[in-house]
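User: Hey, quick favor. My workstation is busy. Could you predict this chain's structure for me?
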Amino acid sequence: MEKAKLLSLQEFKAVKMPAEIQAILGQVNGGSLMECHRKVYEATGIWMPELTPIFQKMDAMLMTRKLPAGVK
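Assistant: No problem, here it is.
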């Protein structure tokens, strides 16, 4: 496993994503991180709009990752 990259939210937002991720960014409105964001809102009433594009980008990264050998 690679060494962790420590980034601020602003640094992460500025990272250029591969074309396959860029292509779906505007379409991603779900996934595990956005779902967590919604659940926190439902439970506490707290919504942090600046996290929405971060979670969308991270969910898109998860959706486009290569699966381990043998997983289809």
